[in-house]
Amino acid sequence: MEPFRRPIEELPGDPRGLSLEYRQRQPLSGHEEPDGLDEWTVTAKVKRFWNRAAGGDIGSLTVLRLRQDERFSPHPWSGLEADADHFEAFQTVLGCYDLGKGGYRQVFRDTMASADGDLLVLTRIRLDPEWRGFGLGAVFASQALWTLADGCSAVAVDIRPPVVTDEGRRLTSAEWDRAIERLAAFSRSLGFRRRPRPLGHLLDPASEEARDAREEHRRRYDALVDAWCAVHPR
Predict the structure, then answer these.
(1) Where are the beta strands (DSSP E) in the chain?
(2) pLDDT tens digit string along 84-119?
(3) Is the pTM of this model over 0.85?
(4) To 10 degrees, what angle do helices 173-190 and 136-148 make?
């Protein structure tokens, strides 16, 4: 297990006070197509202790759940095409799903353990700067995705670095490339792998690799708690 990138003394709060809050949003419509699309926001929160300023909302993650269900339209995902906020996610979905034939592509069926479930698309993730460098982003994402991927055939990823830094400065080309590399490494640590074209990077929730990745991040969280307790004995 790799050591933390920052000294444990710089962790701003007790990791045992972390929790995840799940919130679902679904468009209200008289048409069937939007019924197949749910948006989930998972917020990472830390308990605010009396002797520390750190606390509250420290990060968030957004995923789209695209449901495969005979009760809904045979093309439940086509509504993404006209949504500016979800246009990039729509391109990711097209790699897995054939809107013309109304089903998963054959290459998807051949690659995933099951093609009978929903598709989850990770579109956005953030973690406040003071909490970075301890592996918490991956711990947070792993737990959230594992929870939301129940009943899914795959999880796709469509996240890109912000073009502006936390300080309001625009990223240079070199900084953008490094940010892309970090995101790629982050995705691999969660169990995402590049699949045959045009699928892109997918995580198979039914795979042993995905379960191993989840257990690895659980061990990292336990190691973080142990390290925190060692420098903050009661």
Answers:
(1) 18-25, 37-46, 56-66, 97-98, 103-104, 118-127, 152-157, 193-194, 201-203
(2) 667 778 888 889 988 777 789 999 999 999 998 999
(3) yes
(4) 50
